[in-house]
Amino acid sequence: MPSERRALVTGTSSGIGQAIASRLLADGWRVVGADLAAAVLDAEGFEAVAVDLADAAAAGRLGKEVGPLQAFVHAAGVLRVGPLGKLQPADGELMWRIHVQAAACLADSIIPAMAAAGEGRVVLVGSRVARGVPGRSQYAATKAALVGMARSWAAEVVARGVTVNVVAPAATQTAMLGDPARATVPPKLPPLGRLIQPGEVAALVAFLLSGDAAAITGQEIAICGGSTL
After folding, report:
1. Catalytic residue of the set 29, 46, 72, 139
2. Are 36 and 30 in contact (CB under 8 A)?
């Protein structure tokens, strides 16, 4: 990696994305934070970019215009819940656009550029819910799609110095837990006895972006407090 490492992180205005950006800045990265919400980070090395990631054209433009990157982390996300009989197509479409479509539009430019440079790290923030949870089928579908995309992309660039992985947290202590849209489906506390902390997810992402993780690619890595046991 060059002495000045540069990362694009989506969803940096709150939650896991904010924690990841803060960790990378502390580790000496320069971070471009992409979000529709106003930036909350104000630090040397941080550049905020306002973008509606649900807009495929806008996400695609960002991917082309962001410039050389050594890392791309897609952490932006929304959660809408609903049981069978009450599924809302608009909710599923919104989550697909932000979780899957935005990742694909950005990666379509970013990953080939990394492969051409012979180095790069990509991490998509998934969820343990991708395995299936009652009342969250639409959300689970989008997070499961990230795993399929990541493994496919990893296979395409594995010999060109680029790794692609998914980090899949269990219930994490973020503002999303208090979203009224999920009030009917409360979070399930992991066997660890507490919620996962955003900084713990950020630490795992930071490792996957490091040189020590060069041999890890195409993986879905759970950080779940024992939820998968």
Report:
1. 139
2. no
